[in-house]
Structures are given as C-alpha cells and as structure tokens.
Amino acid sequence: MDSTGKLVMESILETEAATILQFFAGLRGTLSVTFEEGTWSAWLYDLLNPHVDKLVVCNPRKNALLKDGNKSDRNDARKLAELLRGNQLKPVYHGETGVRMLRELSRSYLTIVKDLSRVMNRLKAVYRSWAIPCAGRDVYYTRNRVQWLAKIREAGVRRRAERLYEQLDMLQHLRQQARRELLAESRKHAITAKLRQIPYLGPIRSALAVALIQTPHRFRSKRQLWAYSGLALETRISAEYRMVEGQVRRSKKMLSIRGLNKDHNHDLKGLFKGAATMASARPGPFREFYQAALAKGIKPTMARLTLAQDYSHHADSVEEGRRLRRRKTKIASRLSVSGEEPFHLRVVFSGGGQSVLETLGFEGEYDKRL
Fold this sequence. Notes:
The protein is α/β, with parallel strands linked by helices.
C-alpha cells in the first residue's frame, strides 16, 4: 500500500514455510509485514523476521476496526493493511530467544498445575453432589481413598470418582517431573538466584517470572510492567477543564477508578498476587509495610495491590541489573514506520488455513536474504 492507500497486489498463499518464503523472494522494495497474535504467530515471526524490514505481531484485542462491517479474510487483511500504514497497530512482544526453553517448560508446568486443580475441583464436586462433606485436603490422600469411596453408595458415581483419582495420581506425577525440569533449566540463568533473594519469591516463582517477563528491556518503565501484570488501575474522567474569567482551568473532579486492567498476563498476575498475599501474612519487611498501610486507613485490597506492584518492581529492577546478551533480532514492540520514504511494501497475514496477503506499493531493489 502506497502513501495514498492504493491496492497494488493481492495474493492467497498456502500456510507452508517454503511457499511463503518463495513468495517473499520475488518481492522488491521496503517490506513491512503484520499479522495478529495467535497459534502460529511465534512460528511466523521466526520465519519472516530475517527477511523483512519491519514485522509487527499485533494485538487482536486492540483492532476494533476489524469488528466493523462484514467479516472475511480479505476484509480483515485490507483493514490490517490500513492500520499498518497509519502505524495504528498495537504490537505484541516477540524477539527474546535466550529463555525459550525455560518459557516452554514454564508453560508445561502451569498447564499441568491448572489441569490438576481442575481434577481436584471435579473430585470434590462429586462428593458435594451427594451431600458428603469434603472440606480440607483429606479427600485427596491415597491412604484415605477407600474410606472416602465407601461413602458413595451409587456404583456409577463411585466408578466416576475412581477415574478422577486415577487422573489425580497421573497429574501429580507429571507435575513433579515438570517441576524438576523447570528448576533444572532455571539454574542455567543466574538471574533466578538473584530473584530468590526477594522474600517469598521462591525458586518456582523466580523461574516463572524470568520465563514470563523474558527481558525487562521490553518495558519502558514499571508502569508498563504493572499493566502487563494486570496490576494497573483503569480510570475514567470527563470534562477535565473549564473556562474561568477567560482562562482555562482544570476542574476539581476526582478520577473514577474502574478497577484493574483486564488485558494482561494472567499467570504473571497470579505470581505477584500470590507472593504479595503470602508476604502480607508472614513476618518480614513487606508485612510491616502492609500493616503500616492499614494503619493509615488504606483498604486491605489496595494495600495488597501495592505489595504486588512492589514485587513486580523489585523483580524488574533485579533483572535490569543483569548482563544481557545483545539481541541480534529486532523487537516488534520497538519498531516504527519511517515517514521519509514515499512508498512502502506492506504484506498482511490474516485468516486460518490460507492467508490473504495484500502487497501495496514498492520501489527500489529488495535484498534477497533467502
């Protein structure tokens, strides 16, 4: 798409690496590509980043223009091209590959933990559905299963509970394996040892923090980290200014707090909230800060939020102090459109099995690095 938004070429490609690279090999000019964050975004980023001048993996939650009008791959691709041309896309971070192994192991561990919690909830739901009290953790222990199963009189329900116990045993074994692998990989990163010095940020939380944050340099300040962790406050206000004797004065209206931001990393928020909750209940400097906040009249929820923000800030500060390997690839969140060139070549991916690509405008020679 050129500076006037003129459509130059439109193509439909099979989602195969060889086909996509062959298509890009025949393009000339300054090449800009965008596609939405999704299942294939990491693969596409690694595939295309060495061969294009600009690559933006955009946040689909921020693309309100795509929801307007008819929905199709072609329409979505054209709308994404317009947003890319106007530099209106919100990028999703891609680029740090030094912690990829740790990141994948953390995903495996978190998935198994969630599956285990789901099975435990289902098991208790079976007992509660037959009015059998099951408070506490005694219902999960192997030594007490015979007594618990004997309380269920229906044979079908008892068989269902036995199957859930089998799932529980299997997932507990898998969780221990995933935990050992995660801790072994985290020891290869010196920053995890420094993060463990923060009270109640143990080996598991330290490993998960490194895997989820990846690098602190992706955030301009601690407030961006708070928003990514779901710890930023959303506020609303209108009619901020008024005219007084011919001069603009700011009104005294108070900001309306609408709660915490909803677009965030849920795993990272759970990590900092868990550490803050534990720190507020056990002896230590964080508990003293929490008690002092309560003495000033601050609500417990706001005090715990401040503690969670402090944990994220301390983790970010510790990570910034480490020696990082210089990145050899561009970071999508720091790329911008250059307004000096009169024409740009823009390719937009959208859709599922087949990708609709729109190539708009080109000039000069394209460096073949394929």
